[in-house]
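Input set for joint prediction.
Command: fold jointly, output tokens.
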Amino acid sequence: MIKSLDLNYLKHFYHYASRYKKTTTIGLLMMPLSVAANVLFPWLVIQVIDEHLTPGKYAGLMFLIAAMVVVLIVNYIADGIYTYCLRMTGQKAVFDMRMALFGRILKLPRTYFDKTPTGVTLSRLTSDLEAIGESFVLGVLNLVKDSINTLAVLIFMFFINWQLALLVLLVFPPILLLTQYVRNRLREMYSITRSSLAKGTGFLQECLLGVKTVQLYGAEEEVESKYQGYTDDFLRAQLKTNKYDATLFSIITGITSITIGLIIWYGSGKVLEGVISLGVLIAFINTLEKVFVPLRDFTSQIAAIQRSFAAFEHIEELFEEALEEQGLTLLPANTLQEKLANFESLEFKNVRFRYGGKGPYVLDDISFKLNKGEQLALVGTTGSGKSTIIRIMSKNYMEYQGSILLNGIELSSIPKDSMLHLFSLMQQDVFLFEKNIQFNISLGASDISDNAVIDAAKYVYAHDFILGLPGQYQFELKKSGSNLSAGQAQLISFARVVAQGGQVMMLDEATSSVDSITENLIQKAIGRLFEEKTVIAIAHRLSTIRHSDQILVLSHGKIVEQGNHQNLLAMNGVYARLLKTEVNDSPILTKPA
Amino acid sequence: MTKSKFILHYFLLNKFSYVFAIVCIFLVNYLQVEIPRYIKLAVDLLNESTLASKQGLVDNVQWVIALSVVMVVIRILSRVYALNPGRITEATLKNDIFQHLNRLPSTFHAQFASGKLISIINNDLSGIRLFYGIGFLQLFNILFALSLTPIWMWKISPELTLYSVVPIIIASIIFRMGFRKLRALQAERLTRLQNLSEQLMNYLGGIDLIKNQQMGKWVTSELNEVNLRLLDCTMKIAKIQTIFMPILDYANHFMKVLILGLGGYYLLQEKLSIGEITAFLSYSVLLAIPLMHLGRIVTVYQMGMISIDSVQNILNNEVPSTDLLKMDDHQKSALRGSTLLVQNLSYHYPSATDEHSEVVLKGLNFSIEPGEKVGVLGSIGAGKSTLVNCLNHHLSLQAGQVFWGGKDITQVSRQDWRSYVRTITQEPFLFSDTISENVKFGGKQQGQAADQLDVQQVLELSQLNEDVRRFAAGDQTLVGEKGIMLSGGQKQRLSIARALLTPSDLIIMDNVLSAVDYETERTILKGVFNRIAGQSLLVVSHRVSALEYMDKILVLEQGEIIARGTHAELLESSSYYRNTWQLQQHETEASA
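tokens >
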């Protein structure tokens, strides 16, 4: 009933579940006990009717009744241990899968995050895994238990009377066919519901994150109608699912009573002939529930398992997603440890790059060399490729053409973990944890002392405003630092870069959004950095980078000018012009009348 | 809305469906108890071997089969009409909640993490769907089954009926005990799931930082902790479920044993027939199934109640009543192109420690005449963004401070107010859609079908057109989540294009050109000036260069306007302005 394709999806679940052999074994050992109890019960019913009720014999009846009670108690305990132990296995496997997936996510390339909304990744780790933990584990547990019990009861039936048993079996094929048909329909529906749900959730999340924008643009109704579209798709598929569910459920429930009719009709002749005892007939009628109720529940269990298969499919996708360093031939980390202990040099040789390997080149034929203690500045209009250079250096994007040498070693052959300690990166988008300021600067690194945090804050002139906050360094930030101003958030993130103490400082638009007085302070801090550290900086204030050893002027991904401040000025080209427009405030703005 | 009103409101949404379902559920349950009666007749006829008895037996069997077929049809209807409302309610609530969230002011959104809201909409709404669907179905199934079955049993043997009810009562009591515990645990589990969602959301948001700073170990251990708490709670639930849930199922088996033992005793005393015992055994199942579902329905009910609380937590946050006042077209057009008047505007952020909450804006007074271009210069923490967020009514401010054409803006719905004022925020938020769609964002609402030409035009004005042309897909390029595919400057220019597309009376630019270079800044401002000649403009910046050509510049420092005037006047009168100006002129001296 389960296709081989589906079984493939279970690969990882099986892998993690097989770690918990003990609980699994104990649980499975309970199966035979449970099956025996399940078969013994109807057998005792037959004995009661045929040996005592029909012949009218009272002696020994109470002994049989007591035996039935014992059988029930054994059944209860065995079933309980089976379910609990195996659920434990399942839940622990889900726990491990969540950790494993999260571990993978930390190693996925930037391109994955570019194409996958956060909401989708989030639902993989939450609702999809929940579906596996609840729907799949419980569904399979019940399915296995019910299948084995049903089979045992059927064998028992054959043993007691094969003709009647055959009659019961006759009902099976149409039910199975129907189940199969509905199963396929349901599967289609589930994939629709899953995808419309994921799309809806993704959109919802975007709107919530951007609720301020939605409100400021008065776009409430616009986003609502879009969201409603997703909800409607979801609802339509759900209603269809419901129809199939209802039909299947009702037909299978009804078939029990129809079969009872058939058994009596067929069995009556046999009873009269004395071939079948009344006890057997009644036991059959009563045991039918044990065959048909599971058969009916199969559908809901299968539906639950089906739901989880869609989740498995998603999870498996995430497991299959290529890691950023997968398929690359990397040098072993231990051989690099010494060579990469200190930053020596970084050299770009004719580097070309485009996002996702297609489209226009964002970087085209870039060459430069940065030695220890030097400062490199990237200048150019927005979109000229400055940020891309930094993203490639920090190995956020890897598929560059040409050659990049870090301490003389090709960057693409260095494992990311072996080189990241050399760099401290300050990104365009400031990200703050919902923790206190202390943490947001030290990032929980144990080797950064409280004093080091304060020193870093002083270094970037953030110390004074931090002292003004309630709780000072213990001041708890709200989501994305919403209880700080944009400039303050930037200062914190600046302090963080300093505290992290990488040998190469990468500053991406570090001074934007900071007012000129604070900016001036930062300039001084940067000046200090420029004296002591190796720095790569992108900055719009050309004053920031004036003292750089090397300035690259980029335009449309190409280096158009290269040299230090004096050289470039002398060239009287793009750089000189940029400087001029920044300095010389000629009235190019037309004042409205 | 009170909880009971809430529940009723959504029940009434599908009232016809529910009424029809109730009729069907009743019929199904009636047929269910009728069928064993025919089985009983048939079994009792087995012991007689007359021709008449044989005919009677066949008749009864035919009844059993015919009634079963009818039951199937009605059952399908009952399930469709009882379960659909659950789905419909879920969908309706999703839309309702979203609509509500869209209208709640910033104070609400600052409190609720979006991960939590999503968890409520995804997880808690399932609870509500079950409550309005399967919960309803099972409630009536149980009501009818538990009232009809005992009556039919009573007709056969009152004594045996009374005795066989004993295991049920005992089981129900034990079950209730387990249930109380389960309820508490399930609520706890939901909270833990929410915590997990929130934490993951937070980490995924900062994935680049986490990776670059090699914080993998730390986040993994943090996640491990939350994950472990969830596992722990789940297993506690599993334990309770394993021990208490099957109790009712086993009560049914004990009932069968009782019927066989006691019924057998009555049979031997010839008080009962074997057919009647058979029927009794069938009825015991009919009594047990709803009892088993009783467990589920209580779960569904409890979960539903918890979920409704969660949802009400959102819905009971009232949208300010003024936001519900919609102006008609006449009122709207009367206020077009008015003067913005700010009178003694003060603001402080609401905080837990109210006494110490710092006043961010202190008694500001100024006005923006129609078509006037006003600049605000200020340093970090001066209150620039707060001022912007007061003017566009993003923050909830006191009445009587900001007026538009003489009308207090706190008395105008936010949505109406924002058809006059267009804010370009410091950190632009973009949707993971095409560039073109992002530019058109908000335009559909204004009833203006922005055609391609207009998009081109505003892209040109915001100096983004050339960048767009270089993308392979042009303005159909997908910008990625939060515009990740674009640089900071591109994002800012896109947000300017977006603001310019649809007409408004006052455009507020909150430090929007920080990530673009001076040259681009100038060209953009020039374009904006041309495009919006007749509209008012408020530019907030820390760069003097962006403000020089304004009709009026306000210098904001520590929440107060410390100077005002034109560029030339301020150079004369304000030392702060002059100093800032000189700092930014620093370049000239150095490079000269």
